[in-house]
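=== RUN LOG ===
request id: a7f3
mode: sequence -> structure
chains: 1
length: 328
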Amino acid sequence: MAELFEQLKQKIAGKNLRVVFPEALEPRILGAVARLQSEGLLTPVLIGNIDEVKKALTARGLDASQFGINDPNNCATFEDLVKTFVERRNGKATEEQAREALKDPNVFGTMLVQVGIADAMVSGAIHSTADTVRPALQIIKTKPGVKSVSGAFIMTHGRDAQEKYVFADCAINIDPDAETLADIAIASAQTARLFDVNPPKVAMLSFSTKGSGKSPDVDKVVEATKLAHEKAPELILDGELQFDAAFAPEVGRQKAPGSTVAGHANVFVFPDIQAGNIGYKIAQRLGDFEAIGPILQGMAKPVSDLSRGCNEEDVYKTAIITAAQAVQ
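=== RESULT ===
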């Protein structure tokens, strides 16, 4: 785990990345951004009343001049942001509605990322997932050719820093269709590369291996595998595979002979959120794996959602991951 984050720090150090934190007065955020700034990993951009944020930083013995502070109520470029907001919403918001929306720190922070004032955003310590993710979907939107956002976990083993896997989607899409599953597979491979899970070998999981079971659920995974191959023919990807066939070499040879993935997968795409959520929690509790995430995949620019139960260390690590996504 420590080795993984040292690798990520090396990816972002010296890149002058600016990461927005809309919850500037939250103690957990302030503690994390102080560490990030002092280590020279990134420049925190804090959203809030300028005097209040400066006071909070000074109270911690920090030099407020080392932090970017942006106040939605005192912003020289506010009207430009209003116009961009209206454009991004494609006629779904008037200028007056845009002005009101931009008073929300998450919306304002998202806009700073969209217009390039910042490279990424981290929020969610005191806001819901919807409050964090919805503005990102409305303003930043997904990458070209990608229709859906998904949530992946990096699974690392406590005894072996080199043992790393990607599990997706475990957080966003409840019952993805074949096209969404294909997008999840491609995005998960990109996440795998970010965390040096190389080369990504993507298994499209099912209760069936190569036709051993018959069901519309199996058909969905078969179709998703086909679509993923068409969209990203360079990927090492196969399906449909049961988990044992995807993971264990001896089972893979028996159930899917000739597969380039069976028995060697390191990226596991689950057929729905129930399977994904249950799977990563079993690995956590029974397999002694640590789950890092959820990491939002598919966004045109990176935005990360914290848990409201997060601690300062969680904020610190999430910011490092999000900045690394910006480099990628």
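=== NOTES ===
Residues 150-292 form a domain with the Rossmann fold fold (CATH 3.40.50.10750).
Residues 302 and 325 are 6 Å apart (CA to CA).
=== END ===
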